[in-house]
Structures are given as C-alpha cells and as structure tokens.
Amino acid sequence: MTLLKEIPLQLSSTESWVEKGGVQWLSLDRMSVRLLATAMNAMHARFITITAYQLPKDEGFRLEYHWDFDGQLLGFPFDLPDKSIDSIFDICEAADWIEREIHEEYSLEFTGREYEPLLLRQGDETGVNLRDGVAANNAVAANKEKL
Amino acid sequence: MSYKIPMGPYHPALEEPYKLDMICEGETVIDAKLHIGFNFRGIEHLAETRNYVQVIALMERVCGICSNIHTLALCSAMEKLTGQLPPPRAQYIRTIMAELERLHSHVLWAGIAAKLMGFKTMFMTCFEIREKVMDVLAAISGNRVNYAMNRVGGVNRDITDPDSILKMVEKLEGEMARTVIPIFTTSRTARSRCAGVGVLTNEKAVSLGVVGPVARASGVPQDLRKASPYAAYAEMSFDVPVQPAGDVTARLLVRALEIMESCKILKQALSKLPPGELCCGDGKFDFTKLIATTATARVEAPRGEVMYSVSWKEGSRNPARVHVRTPTFAVMPAIRWMVKGARLADTPLIQASIDPCYSCTDR
Q1: Which of A40, A44, A46, A73 is the best mutation test for B, with the most CBs of B within 10 A?
Q2: B11-23 tens-digit pLDDT
Q3: Is A71 helix (H, G, I), strand (E, B) or coil?
Q4: A20 interfacial to chain B (CB closer than 8 Å)
Q5: Per the structure, how many domains does chain B have?
Q6: Which ipTM score applies to this complex?
Q7: How close, in Å, is residue B35 to chain A by CA atoms?
C-alpha cells in the first residue's frame, strides 16, 4: 500500500484512493494520463484495459484505465468532454489494441498515435458502438427498412 | 527481396477467422500484422438492450468454449452492484464448473495443437477425452456447452451426487495421466516440433501485458486464482505451473501441468462440497436498490484473465454498459513478436499455441 500512497503525490493530485466494488479508484486530471502510465510502469503494475463509457445525452465520454498491482485492481477515471485524450501507447504498448478498439467503437481520438484498423469499423466509418447518430448505424437501420 | 503472405481470414490452420499478414524473406518471417473483427457482433452494445436476466444468457454466448467463465464474471460484477454474496455451496459449484471448463478447453486445445503438429492419433485421443469431460459437464448442468449454471447470487443447479462426479473426474485424471500428459511432456515428436519455436521473452510478455498460460509459459507467475481468489479458490490447495522458456513447448507444458492441477482442485472441491443453499436471499437482482452503479470482476479463464466492467443506472432493468476484456484480446498482439524470425511453416502452430479465441476477441 505504501507504493500506492505515493502515486497521488507523484501525479501532483490532492485526491486519495477510494475503494469501491473491489477496485481502488483514484481521480486524476486527464492531462496526467501519460504521467500515470509512466508511474504504473515504474511500479511494475500490469496494464489491463481501458473501459469507455458514452455518458447520457451530451455529457461526453468517460474512460476508465485499469492496472493490476500485486492482485489489486486499480482504476483511474477520466472525463472526456471533447472526445480526445493523449495516447499512452508509446509508454505502455499493452494499450495499443484497446486504444484502437475504442477509437473504432466510439470515434474517440488518442492523440499522438496512428491507427492500424482493427476492422470493427464499417469502411472508413468509426463509432460502431455509439448509441445513435453514427453513419454506420444509420446504414444498418436503412438496410433493415429496405428488408 | 521480401514478399507478403496473407494467412486468413479463412485458412485451414485457423479455427476462426482472423488475418495474419506476414512479411517474409525466403522462408523466414520478418514481420507480421494482425487484423481482427471478422466475428464482430457488437455484443457489448447489444447487452445494453437486454434486461438483467437476458444479459446473462447473452454474455454466455460471447464464447462457445469458456461460456461459463463469462457468466461467472458478469454475475460476480452484478453481485457487487447489489452487495449479494453467494452461499458457500454455490461458490464451490462455481469452482467445479470453472475447472471442468478449463479441462475441456485445455484438452480441446491439446487436440488442435496435436493436429497442427501432424500428430493425428493424439488429436483423436484428446477429442475422445474431451467428450468425457463434456459428459461430466452434462451430468451436472444438463448441457454440453452453454451450461447456464450461474445466476446473480449463486447457481441455478445443484450437484446432487458429488461422489459419482468425483469418480468420473478420477477416471478422467487417470486417462489424461496415461496419455495426454506423457506425450506432451516427453514425446520426441512434440518436442522436435515445438522446442525453440515462437519464443515470447519474459520482458516482452510483461511489456505486452499478456495473461494466462501464455504469460506463465514466459515465466510470469500470474494467476488470479492465487493473486486475487474468487469463488472457493482461497480454500483450494494447488500450484501454478510456470515455465521460463517462452516457446511453444513451454506453452504445451504449462497447459499439460494445469490439467493435472485442475483435477487436483476438482477432487478437493467435490469431496469438500459444503451443504446449504444455492443462492442468497430470494435470488433476484434488485435493480432498484444498488449499492454501487459500477462494478468490476475478474476471473481466471482457461486462456487467462477475463474482466467485466458493468455499469447500471439505478431503477433500470438493463445495464448501462457491459465491457468485456477477454484474454485473447490481451494475448493476440504477442503473435507478431512470436512469429518474427520463425519459419513460415511454423506459423500455424505458433498462432495456435496461444489458444486463440476470436469469438471472444471480437465479441
């Protein structure tokens, strides 16, 4: 736990860890995502995944980054009002595929990287998991109407 | 001069569709690119349109081989939302089902690996044993796949005669100890085909965050059943096999040894099965009284860590979000590093050595 306590200090955060649903959560400013990835690497924490949430109405998106540290699940939520966040792929190569997947599913931008398509997209259209307003989903709906 | 050889999306060496574009010089693979998405079904999106009963049946269909582990992770996450704790008997039954599923998955994989090695007799032997594992699963759940055992707060079915299941498991263990294990651990055919092939170094395994038997075969001693026990694993005595070499042989050995460890866990769980209820409370998921709106659960599937993040709006019958991180999604990027420098003819075996599940990966 000592190492964990140092993380908010390293990231200049005044927040502290909150245990909820078996996860240790720490809220951080989204500008610190790359610092977070560097700190997790230094701790030899294992990157697990990023979970993307499309918030209701026009509230934007939330990303939750997860690492495993000695069997303890750590979570870091970041709100994305403008659909973009710095990529951590160059610091943490385990994040490559999940950043690509989220980009294809929710059209979110991970700045500072290029995307090799994972083929979840329809042609050049990304955003297949968005609730509505996506060209891909509209095309599917149009096809259904034709049938 | 280099040239590109595509493998897939439809290829005799692949169980399911994905694409591996290999850049070769002569017979040597210089680099490779992977493409997934050919099985993409939008299940996570679909989950948001299903209620708290339907979503369990839906997520059971993410994978045809480790279907039980998906509902175990989902139900565990949903239990955290409502604060339900399954009774001890249910925890033991969950452990038994999870280990039977691991046996089923590992023996199935062993058969496919044997076929790719050109070891057809071994393929037949493995599939015969797999049938017997499925008989045990059917004896408990009534189903050979998609067992529908897990529910929020416990399990749907009891093991009414653990002694007869124990006898079946002991018989299976004997058969595997006589056939699969010696062949995979000592056979010259297996060794000559697999030793030094498709190496994933320990450093690369850590850097890529690979999980499960692939990580353990690269010397990463990581297993959620030990590191963060769930169900009844804290009460079980077992070892986590780890091999340092990182090649196909190491992956074979790890899975072969895990088969024996699974039998050890099964025998303990079946002989110590505690009496009691199968489900806590009235067995209902009360979506009007949530103690949290987001919960996460992790379990050790046959291929490695599965993680479910579930978000639920209080009062809603449907989840707001279900995110699944499957083990193959974490392991597949490692194929690129395993095939670099390999002979082209070895690439089908190398990609199979991670025991990939594209159905899980694409979701």
Answers
A1: A46
A2: 777 777 888 888 9
A3: coil
A4: yes
A5: 1
A6: 0.86
A7: 6
